[in-house]
Protein 1
Amino acid sequence: MRVAALYDVHGNVHALEAVLCDVEREGVDELVFGGDIAAGPFPRQTLELVRSLDAVCIRGNADWRDGEWGAHQWVWDQLGEEGGEWLKALPDHAVLDGIFFCHATPRSDIEPVTPATADERLADILAGVEQELVVAGHTHMQQDRRVDRWRFVNPGSVGRPYEDAPGAYWGIVGEEIALRRTDYDLEAAAEATRASGHPRAAELAEENVLRVPSREGAIAVFGG
Ligand SMILES: [Mn+2]
């Protein structure tokens, strides 16, 4: 089975539309959204698009929390009560074809695993997970690593990547693992983002669409 793993879309509907075109071309068997779906400049449009697809969705920290690890009140206002409740009711993990999908780690939706996280610590985090392939996001950085009997894959972030180049990051998982990056019209997305009404619209357009935080910088912020 080939599963498209779309994590951390963060309300960037323009990036998501571009990725879905690539997903369509790939002819995958299943589509998984790995959480932090709507918290960003186009929450309502993103959620409508996600819900129109035949996809498995799990919940990230920003799909239910408030405050530092949650979504801005503006996002909840855009989503409305029904949209917000739908996100909050999502499961925190899914198992498909023997693959374990979670947002950050199997035991937490906010615990970061970065390339700087030691193997021993990652093995400790994964202890008790029977599936050998674990797919997780949250740090917005692609990773594909093996530790003990597990393979741990982060497909990166569709809508708010912390990578060395802008674009939309995602992956195909299954017997083969393929980490992907899709180009989209950054100028058009940035212009729309500036006009989105999000309280941090200008910052999102400049620092999360046209340019993106570097992996190195993000690792320093998340720690190991
Ligand atoms: Mn997250």
Note: The helical segments are 13-26, 43-51, 73-88, 119-126, 186-194, 201-210, 215-222.
Protein 2
Amino acid sequence: MSTTLNERRLDPAPVAILGAGPVGLALANELAWRGVRCVLIDRRTEPLRFPTSESIHARTMEHFRRWGIADAVRYAGFPPELPRNVSFVTRLTGYDLGRVERPSNRQQQIVSRSISPEGAIWCPKFLFEEVMRRRLRDAGTVEILAGCELDAFEQDAEGVELFVRDLATGHAFSRRALYLAACDGASSSTRKSLGIKLEGKFAEGRNLGIFLRSAELGEMMRARDSVMADIINPDFSANLSAVDGDELWRLIIFARDGDPDTLDPETCIQRAAGRKTDAVIVESRVWAGHTVVAESFQRGRVFLAGDAAHLLWPRGGFGMNTGVGDAVDLGWKLDAVLKGWGGSELLASYEAERRPVAVRNVAEAAENYRAESSLPISTHLDENSTRGEAERARMSRAILETRTREWSTIGLQLGYVYEGSPICWADGTVAPRAPDGVYLANTRPGARAPHAWLDPETSYLDRFGRGFCLVHRRGIEVAAFDRAAAALEIPLSTLDHETITQEALYERALVLVRPDGHVAWRGNEMPEDVEAVLGKAVGRVRRECEHLAREAPVRSSLGRS
Ligand SMILES: Cc1cc2nc3c(=O)[nH]c(=O)nc-3n(C[C@H](O)[C@H](O)[C@H](O)COP(=O)(O)OP(=O)(O)OC[C@H]3O[C@@H](n4cnc5c(N)ncnc54)[C@H](O)[C@@H]3O)c2cc1C
């Protein structure tokens, strides 16, 4: 067992996080950024080397930017200038069937500049997890219990008792925390012990993943100028993706109705390449695709996040990215409640906001898998004949129609809205109808507040800070918001627009942005009851606002950034 703190703390940790996968690490980073102490428990002492989660969405990069690690992740080891193109081929040495062009990690940030200060990137999990871990070590607010397993837990009205075992020594001990975030992955023992069921189709298909090293496959992919290839032929369907952008690759074979345990990895690589290669297998593992979401994300003081709460097909990169979104939503709410300005309804809004996003993303990934698995594969597809040529032309059209959607998801990455959230003030407006793959900036309550540049380096998103931020038209009187926030002890900063374009982008004279960068309320005039607006945004019931407003001294401003 190792700890990052010099001495063991005997008082309850504000938050315990079970699982130091990408989602547990994201929650620990969000809490560290907010100065909230936590204990992070994982049975592993070494990072998982098997590569997954390489497709990092723009919204996740925006969160990394808030924690100060976006550049470190972008330059963590994957070649920043390598275009992230996707090829569709019959085999790596076979025929071309189609192509999706995507900029490199560095170029994507430039291409995305008008809608985000960051862009989606490609970076395998073991590289970006190390950056997240380093950040936590620097923060010094996280106690890491590595090599420790959580055997059981009990919750009462005040907290959660955790029964932990050091796997190296067998030493069993207990820790207490006020809240437990279960980021314990697909087979979450926390979810099971809480009796929370998964809704949907569990284990729809079992597949084989092969982590391999091969200079020759690297050459073949460089010749195609691609980091990913969907291999489509009558024998089998597979997907090859870059790990380090050089010799390390991951090959996935979709076993469909077959049994992946009976597949020979060497033969699979040969079939994908179209000939024998120098490939050396690092590791093979069987994994399952799912379309499931937990029926509930919370029981009392225990919350589910990441794969513990939703499991999907790895098509479109929605797994880890959805989990990081969970972590951010839960993180600011825990912070608010622990600091005393979050209301009694705030934590319950976690499930209300995140579950619908999970349902949508799980369905989107399933749709991508369905599109991939229902391509009409002719037995002549790989043939050097007129018939083969005609079949490939037909396949190219089918790919163009059904498969490109998977790689143009910016509308989903940035455009999700917490519709119907109990802590957002719905204003009766209807979501703008964006064509597939397009993000339309808007400030509807629940939406991500849009990005604009204040100067070439500073985005609006950089100025939102750790509390609420009232973004407003220049010259408008906002003192009533300052007074109400002070009375309710809610941290609030303000940001006024500099240009007419920015005013237009924000659509209303006043837009209240939450600590996670989503819009809580908007209007053209000062609301009659500002305390009610703020109170609902932090999950307070009316009585809680009145009580605090009577007792708190009125301060003129709080937490301006
Ligand atoms: C082939 C493949 C490709 C993928 N590609 C992408 C992609 O490009 N983009 C994307 O967003 N997603 C992708 N995913 C999905 C992504 O890998 C997962 O969604 C993500 O890893 C889930 O993270 P997590 O932190 O929730 O869980 P995990 O990564 O599973 O972490 C859970 C942790 O909890 C620990 N743990 C569990 N129980 C206990 C216990 N009782 N005591 C102590 N420790 C415990 C485990 O040791 C583990 O470290 C892919 C998945 C696959 C299979």
Note: Residues 1-8, 549-561 have pLDDT under 50 and may be disordered.
